[in-house]
Structures are given as structure tokens and as C-alpha cells.
Design brief:
Blueprint lengths: L2 E3 L9 E9 L2 E8 L3 E4 L3 H11 L4 H12 L7 E4 L4 E5 L10 E3 L3 E8 L2 E6 L4 E4 L3 H34 L11 H10 L1
Parallel strand pairs: 1-4
Antiparallel strand pairs: 2-3, 2-7, 3-4, 5-6, 6-7, 8-9, 9-10
């Protein structure tokens, strides 16, 4: 894959992961997409924050929302954009420079390589070895799945309420009193 250096980068539905790389003595981000790679002069957490803002909500609000939905307080997965299923989780605390952010939707499977390394196979069949234990990936996948499920439950529940409110209470007529029943019963005689 060809790596392109760019100034601005927003996470999108093609982004599989964002990892820190040292470039010229400074921490940059390498954003790996389905068919492209980009090198940006911002740290991964800065890319996550900018991407949240790009989609209309700041990072801190997303963190508060995640805490409220799933009750966790550390290594929180983040909803960057829910309608396109853009959910990312960190491999360590986002404040640690080595933190890598991985797209939940792109992970097909994962397996232990060694005590501190996990291979993730993405849906496009590419794979990458991450410097974290398999238990960390497994835990983060579960947290992100819980976050996505809780959010979808709320959206569906709200949608049902809106549907009911839009239609209002409906009267229920017994079939015996309907025109169709009367016409049908006359034909039987």
C-alpha cells in the first residue's frame, strides 16, 4: 500500500485503525484504510478528537455519553459517527502516546501471537499485529459491542415512541361491526 502524507485527516467508514508513528522526532499518525494509508502530523488522539468534531460532537461529550451508556470509565470506546457504524476503541489509555485506535466494524477476528501481541484480521482479509495482549482486544471488543447495543436499543425505543406519537392512539373495531364482515355474511346466506 502506498502511504500518502496529508495535513488533515478525518476518520471515515473506510478507516481500519490509527496508530502512532515517530516521524522526524515527532509523533504522527498512520491511518490505515481499506485500500490506502495516510501519514498525518497529528497524534492519534488528536485525529479521534478532530473526527468527533467533524461529525458534530466533541470528544469529551462522546466520552461522557459512553460512560453513561455502559458504565465504564477507562479505555472508553468512542462513537465517532453512529449512522455509519464508526465506533473506535483504544488499545491502552488514550493519554499514553502508544495508544492505537481500532475500528470495531472492521475487525473480523483476532488471535494471540505472543503474551503481548495480538493479530487482528480485518474484514478485507488484511491483518496487522498489535503490541497488546489478546485479553485487551477481547475486552475492548466486548465494551464496544455493549456500547453499540445500548445505543441501538435507545434509538429503536425512541423510534417506537415517535411512531406511536405520530400515529396517536388508534381505535380498534371488532370485525363483526365492519362493512366487510356484513357484506361477507350476506353472501353466505
Amino acid at each position: 500500500m502506498k502511504q500518502t502524507q496529508i495535513e488533515e485527516y478525518e476518520i471515515n467508514s473506510c478507516t481500519m485503525y490509527v496508530e502512532p508513528v515517530v516521524y522526524g522526532g515527532k509523533v504522527y499518525s498512520r491511518s490505515v484504510e481499506l485500500e490506502d494509508e495516510f501519514l498525518s502530523p497529528f497524534k492519534p488522539l488528536d485525529i479521534i478528537k478532530k473526527s468527533c468534531i467533524y461529525f458534530g460532537v466533541d470528544y469529551e461529550s462522546r466520552k461522557r455519553g459512553t460512560r453513561q451508556l455502559i458504565g465504564y470509565y477507562r479505555k472508553l470506546p468512542i462513537i465517532i459517527e453512529p449512522t455509519n457504524n464508526i465506533y473506535f476503541f483504544p488499545t491502552v489509555s488514550p493519554l499514553i502516546p502508544e495508544c492505537i485506535w481500532i475500528s470495531f466494524e472492521h475487525v473480523e477476528s483476532y488471535r494471540r501471537v505472543s503474551a503481548q501481541k495480538t493479530m487482528i484480521i480485518f474484514r478485507n482479509k488484511q491483518s496487522h499485529i498489535f503490541p497488546v495482549p489478546v485479553s485487551t482486544i477481547e475486552g475492548q471488543m466486548l465494551r464496544t459491542s455493549l456500547l453499540k447495543t445500548k445505543l441501538m436499543q435507545r434509538i429503536e425505543s425512541n423510534g417506537k415512541r415517535l411512531f406511536y406519537m405520530a400515529r396517536g392512539p388508534q381505535s380498534i373495531n371488532a370485525l363483526e361491526k365492519s362493512f366487510e364482515y356484513d357484506a361477507h355474511s350476506k353472501n353466505l346466506k
